[in-house]
Amino acid sequence: MAKKRKTEPEERVTTTEVEIFGASYSIRGTQDPETLRELAAEVDRKMREIAAHAPSIDVGRLAILAALNLAEEASRNRRQVDEERGVIETKVAELTEELAAALVS
Q1: Could you give the residue ranges of the DSSP H alpha helices within 4-58?
Q2: How confident is the prediction for the chain on average, in pLDDT?
Q3: How far apart are CA 56 and CA 40, in angstroms?
Q4: DSSP characters for the chain?
Q5: pLDDT at residue 49, as a whole number
Q6: Which of 1, 60, 70, 100 has the lowest CB atom count within 10 Å?
Q7: pLDDT tens digits, 48-95
Q8: Domain range annotation of the chain
Protein backbone atom coordinates (compact mmCIF):
# COMPACT_ATOMS: atom_id res chain seq x y z
CA MET A 1 0.00 0.00 0.00
CA ALA A 2 1.55 3.32 -1.07
CA LYS A 3 1.89 6.09 1.45
CA LYS A 4 0.06 9.28 0.71
CA ARG A 5 2.41 12.22 0.56
CA LYS A 6 1.51 15.24 2.57
CA THR A 7 1.04 18.01 0.04
CA GLU A 8 1.89 21.61 0.62
CA PRO A 9 -0.93 24.08 0.15
CA GLU A 10 -0.85 25.29 -3.42
CA GLU A 11 0.81 28.65 -3.78
CA ARG A 12 -1.03 31.16 -5.88
CA VAL A 13 0.72 32.05 -9.13
CA THR A 14 0.37 35.68 -10.07
CA THR A 15 1.65 37.88 -12.87
CA THR A 16 3.34 41.12 -11.90
CA GLU A 17 4.24 43.88 -14.32
CA VAL A 18 7.62 45.49 -13.65
CA GLU A 19 9.80 47.98 -15.51
CA ILE A 20 13.56 47.67 -15.64
CA PHE A 21 15.71 50.14 -17.54
CA GLY A 22 12.80 51.30 -19.69
CA ALA A 23 11.53 47.84 -20.63
CA SER A 24 8.36 46.25 -19.25
CA TYR A 25 8.32 42.64 -18.09
CA SER A 26 5.53 40.33 -16.98
CA ILE A 27 6.86 38.16 -14.18
CA ARG A 28 4.87 35.05 -13.27
CA GLY A 29 5.50 33.41 -9.94
CA THR A 30 4.38 32.84 -6.39
CA GLN A 31 6.32 35.76 -4.94
CA ASP A 32 4.55 38.72 -3.42
CA PRO A 33 3.97 41.26 -6.22
CA GLU A 34 5.23 44.15 -4.08
CA THR A 35 8.45 42.25 -3.35
CA LEU A 36 8.93 41.63 -7.08
CA ARG A 37 8.41 45.33 -7.80
CA GLU A 38 10.99 46.23 -5.12
CA LEU A 39 13.51 43.76 -6.58
CA ALA A 40 12.92 45.08 -10.09
CA ALA A 41 13.43 48.63 -8.80
CA GLU A 42 16.75 47.56 -7.28
CA VAL A 43 17.88 46.02 -10.57
CA ASP A 44 16.75 49.16 -12.41
CA ARG A 45 18.65 51.37 -9.94
CA LYS A 46 21.82 49.34 -10.33
CA MET A 47 21.62 49.34 -14.13
CA ARG A 48 21.09 53.12 -14.18
CA GLU A 49 23.98 53.61 -11.76
CA ILE A 50 26.33 51.65 -14.02
CA ALA A 51 24.98 53.28 -17.18
CA ALA A 52 25.80 56.70 -15.71
CA HIS A 53 29.47 55.69 -15.66
CA ALA A 54 29.46 53.86 -19.01
CA PRO A 55 26.75 55.40 -21.20
CA SER A 56 27.80 53.62 -24.42
CA ILE A 57 27.58 50.08 -23.02
CA ASP A 58 24.90 47.87 -24.58
CA VAL A 59 21.93 46.78 -22.47
CA GLY A 60 22.96 43.12 -22.34
CA ARG A 61 26.38 43.89 -20.93
CA LEU A 62 24.83 46.45 -18.61
CA ALA A 63 22.47 43.79 -17.26
CA ILE A 64 25.37 41.37 -16.71
CA LEU A 65 27.39 44.03 -14.86
CA ALA A 66 24.36 44.88 -12.73
CA ALA A 67 23.83 41.20 -11.92
CA LEU A 68 27.49 40.80 -10.95
CA ASN A 69 27.34 43.93 -8.77
CA LEU A 70 24.19 42.71 -7.03
CA ALA A 71 25.67 39.22 -6.55
CA GLU A 72 28.80 40.76 -5.01
CA GLU A 73 26.66 42.84 -2.62
CA ALA A 74 24.67 39.74 -1.64
CA SER A 75 27.88 37.75 -1.07
CA ARG A 76 29.36 40.54 1.06
CA ASN A 77 26.14 40.70 3.11
CA ARG A 78 26.16 36.91 3.64
CA ARG A 79 29.78 37.03 4.84
CA GLN A 80 28.93 39.86 7.24
CA VAL A 81 25.94 37.94 8.63
CA ASP A 82 28.11 34.84 9.07
CA GLU A 83 30.75 36.86 10.92
CA GLU A 84 28.14 38.48 13.15
CA ARG A 85 26.56 35.07 13.83
CA GLY A 86 29.97 33.79 14.96
CA VAL A 87 30.42 36.73 17.31
CA ILE A 88 26.95 36.21 18.76
CA GLU A 89 27.47 32.47 19.22
CA THR A 90 30.78 33.13 21.01
CA LYS A 91 29.17 35.70 23.28
CA VAL A 92 26.24 33.38 24.08
CA ALA A 93 28.70 30.59 24.98
CA GLU A 94 30.65 32.97 27.26
CA LEU A 95 27.50 34.19 28.97
CA THR A 96 26.22 30.63 29.37
CA GLU A 97 29.49 29.68 31.10
CA GLU A 98 29.28 32.74 33.36
CA LEU A 99 25.66 31.95 34.25
CA ALA A 100 26.48 28.31 34.97
CA ALA A 101 29.40 29.37 37.20
CA ALA A 102 27.18 31.88 39.02
CA LEU A 103 24.49 29.26 39.64
CA VAL A 104 27.05 26.83 41.10
CA SER A 105 28.41 29.44 43.53
Answers
A1: 33-53
A2: 92
A3: 22
A4: -PPPPPPPPPPPPEEEEEEETTEEEEEEESS-HHHHHHHHHHHHHHHHHHHHH-TTS-HHHHHHHHHHHHHHHHHHHHHHHHHHHHHHHHHHHHHHHHHHHHHH-
A5: 97
A6: 1
A7: 999 999 999 999 999 999 999 999 999 999 999 999 999 999 999 999
A8: 14-104
Q: What is the pLDDT at residue 3?
A: 56
Give yes or no for a contact between 33 and 12, defined as CB atoms under 8 angstroms apart. Answer: no
Distance from C-alpha of 48 to C-alpha of 67, rounded to nearest angstrom: 12
SS3 5: coil
In whole angstroms, what is the distance from residue 47 CA to residue 11 CA? Answer: 31
Amino acid at residue number 63: A
